[in-house]
Write a structure and sequence with these properties.
Layout: H1 2-29, H2 36-58, H3 65-87
Helix pairs in contact: 1-2, 2-3
């Protein structure tokens, strides 16, 4: 079961990284953008590390306080939840 969870986390974080890069590219091109609620949804379902890395690497959404504060808080909550779940018998 642990391998499936790890695979899921890798895939969802790659997706989070990709959506941040895609949205940044679309912003530069003046094209249709990915909704902010979608970016947060990807972070909430486990892709917060990928979204955070994408934010910083692509310099995207780093001026929006709700991303600068929200995404790290989501990541912290997910790490705490994982730690608690790992300690359960």
């Amino acid at each position: 079961m642990g391998n499936w969870i790890l695979l899921y986390l890798v895939v969802v974080n790659l997706a989070g990284f990709a959506v941040m890069g895609t949205d940044k590219r679309r912003a530069k091109q003046g094209r249709w953008r990915i909704q902010e609620k979608t970016l947060f949804a990807v972070a909430l379902v486990g892709g917060s590390l990928g979204v955070l890395l994408g934010m910083h690497l692509f310099h995207h959404k780093t001026r929006h306080w709700y991303f600068v504060v929200g995404v790290p808080l989501i990541l912290a909550a997910q790490v705490i939840l994982a730690a608690v779940l790992c300690r359960m018998p």
